[in-house]
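Job type: complex structure
Entries:
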Amino acid sequence: MTTLAANKPAYDGKTLDLTGKSGARAFKNTLATVLIVLCFLVALVPLLWILWTVISKGYHLLLDPNWWSQSQRGVTVRRVGGGAYHAIMGTLIMALICAAIAVPIAILGAIYLVEYGKGTKAAKVVSFMIDILTGVPSIVAALFIYAVWITVFGFNRVGFAVSLSLVLLMLPVVLRSTEEMLKLVPDELREASYALGVPKWKTILKVVVPTAFGGIITGVMLGLARVMGETAPLLILVGYSKNINLNPFEGFMGALPTMINQDRTELALQPAADRVWAAALTLILLVLLLNLLARVIARFSTIKSK
Amino acid sequence: MSSTDGTAPPDRPTDRSTGPKLDLGPVGHLGDRLFAGLARGSGGLVVAIVAFVGIFLLALAIPALADNNSSFLFSRIWEPGGETPRFGIAALFYTTLVSSIIAMVIAVPIAVGVALFTTYYSPKRLAAPVSHAIDLLAAVPSIIYGLWAIIFFAPILRPVIDGLSSALGWLPLFEKPATDNLGVVFTASVVLAIMILPVVTAISREIFAQTPITHREGALALGATRWEMIRMAVLPYGRSGVVSASMLGLGRALGETVAVLIILSVPNGNDPWDSSIFAGGETFASKIANNAAEFDSPEKTGAYIAAGLVLFVVTFLVNSAARLIVARSGPGNRRPRRNRRAGTNPAQTEGAAT
Amino acid sequence: MSVNRLLRVGTVAVASLGVLALSACGSDPESSANPGSTSSSSGGDCPKGTLNAEGSSAQKNAIEEVISKYNEKCTDVTVNYNPTGSGAGIKQFNASQVDFAGSDSALKTESKDGGEAEAAAAAKRCQGSPALNLPMVIGPVAIAYNVDGLDKLVVDGATAAKIFQGTIKTWNDPAIVKLNPGAKLPTAPIAVFFRSDESGTTENFTKYLEAAGGGAWTGKPAKKWTGTGAGKEKSAGVAEGVKSTKNSITYVEWSYAVDNKLGVAQVDTGAGPVELSAESAGKALAAAKPAGTGSDLALKLDYATKAPGAYPIILVTYEIACSKGLPAEKTALVKSFLTYFASADGQSSLADLKYAPLPEETRTKVDAAIQAIS
């Protein structure tokens, strides 16, 4: 995407326009430019404001190395100290398990819709189901897993159950955006590949998917961002613990959204308020880190197809 | 992806011609069969998951619905559990829909504007950082949007609420509330708009950026202004993508839980129903989340699950409607609404694609 | 090798590297409350292990404080408390998801919706032995308000009931003026906030309104609000609502009213206006009687008390624990923690957090019941 933006340029309407513009058209063009820039500025205000709030209120705790290496054990809302280590680990563990399950299914599902099932009845059914899945509110996904995991199987509430419910939320996001991106890959690329005798599956893996890779990564990142900030499944499927627990199959587990949720009820108290914003900032930074990582890999991988 | 810009032949918009042609590639390999099987399996898995969720939800909802002593669709009373459970979703339905629609009305045009700005207007150096910043905002957890909104953002909406309600107060929709309470549907809508903005922007941007360069060059070469180029080449090409981006946004707005829960104040059961967007309310998701801790009997849980089911159906209907619109007006078989006298005729190239 | 596989492998590899790097240095903070204390005393009556509990959010601050103190004594015990609400706590307890529960009301012995009664389900969870209701934390409920220039507000039971019922609609209503001679009361409508989630606080507050309201409160006491106003989620929500809305009033745990710097109304019980304090709440508690007999420790509060200087709106939260039937190691953990909670030492830390400590007589009984757990 970044590379795209970089590719764009140079075609500036004004320099290429040889016919001369009538006043009305020039006016409309200016008006559109003004409106679009205005849109951008209007959008920027709340977005910068919220980022500023989180950063300015949260950054000082992040500067303390203890924030990254300690849990909240024994730290009450009236006391300063402790860190978010337990919650960071919990969030990472649950999100990664979720992604490991959801991303392959989503990408393969999208490949099915675009490459194999296109136009068939079965594909329409799958597409229909994804639409429904998009509408599953996180709380209902959580209730569903609760009933299966706890009521039917009788397991305890654990981090893995959260991951399972997050899969339901991540799957349609990644699948839809991947599908949208695969659709945009020109047929000529596929046809050229077939013409060279490359089998279909190799065409998909080596031509189609790499071509759409940037978009797919954006979809995965949007999906990850969505599930990492999700609170409802955490509330229902795993208890919040202030202590370190790295085992997704046993015991209460901390996570950044539940850490925020615990302390947000005590915003009138400074130590708790600081931790709320710091935890939010940490969560944002985590996603940013994943994002950058994905972008690096995306750029690295698109070189091949150039 | 960037290579598509250089190597892609022109005019292959979203709806390509159909399947048979694709099977021309050699398909007999074991790898092919395996891979096709995997892809089909994933598709099947999605169907199975949804069917499973659906059946399970129905199974929980039906007994509660059967015991319901009040019209599920048209009552606004919510007293599940107890000896004579009575619950209806009219008020929830109204608030959910109104808040999401207002959020869409605010967010989508702005998101499209931002996406166009980052793809075609902004200086090169600005585009990438801005895109990243906006992507980052999709990562802000909704609980933080809620906290920020109620503490910092809502107070600045008070003049807007006062202004709108005194100007349009004669409409029931804009009626002024009795107290200064800021936890109203309008506040929630604006915050929802801010929340879905990054999602819609990110996807729209991807789509706009993929507009074949020949379309754009063609328009410009024929003397189109930048705006005309966008209207004739970029927007028609990206329409389907924008609609599906909007649907993802709408899905998020309809199902948004914690932020709405923090912002909205809940009307009590005794007052007459207030349809104003300057009154409080509850959405499906906020209602379920607010009461999730007290799902202590199957009857009660069933009532909430039934509400969740309705949310499904609403989202699904909206999605289907959008898909229908896309199918009718997809770039492959639709011309720009009016061909400007700029003299370009993108219909020609578009027609070729069909 | 497919690119997306490459990506996945890459992401997972880098992430797990990060995980490893982080886990190498993850630790628990040293006790910040008492840096001098060492972790040497983990022997003696301190078992080892993890205790999970869930329930009432009204006792969250109390139990967190006690856990923190307990951990100074017993460093090898991890106690998690999840403040999701009394109903959720009992549900999780009965489903064997947690080792004990916190609740704003004792287990109900009668079934509500034709299902199993809470007490019976709890007994089943405890392998047939009854579950104990141990009163542990006492939290006064404040009537908190936000009116410019009004430093002192007095209400009585009937006025409060009418305000929260919605029959008194403005601040300068004669009934309020009569109780507050000379106060600057605005003409504005009263904005009432209530808890939109089901809550033990609502239940106790409506019990008070019913008992002291002289018939002005028409609803039945319940966890779900039946009066007037606008609902907000949890104590934090109503406190925030009052803070940001002028001319508003709500009922909320005392600590939230204090932390959010809200005005707290004095309550006229018929023996003159009483200010909310640990002392005045304690006096009301002295008037409380055991609800049952024998080992049943559930308390019955007298909300209509006219004892001089007693603040009548108080909330008792319980710990629900098995009397028998837990695995031996869990039993030892539950016993050890609850013993500390009910000790004079454990209770003494609660006053600073705007809770009232258990009266000595009750405390001894609770302690005896805990020692009988096996």
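Summary: Residues 86-300 of chain A form a domain with the MetI-like fold fold (CATH 1.10.3720.10). The radius of gyration of chain A is 24 Å.
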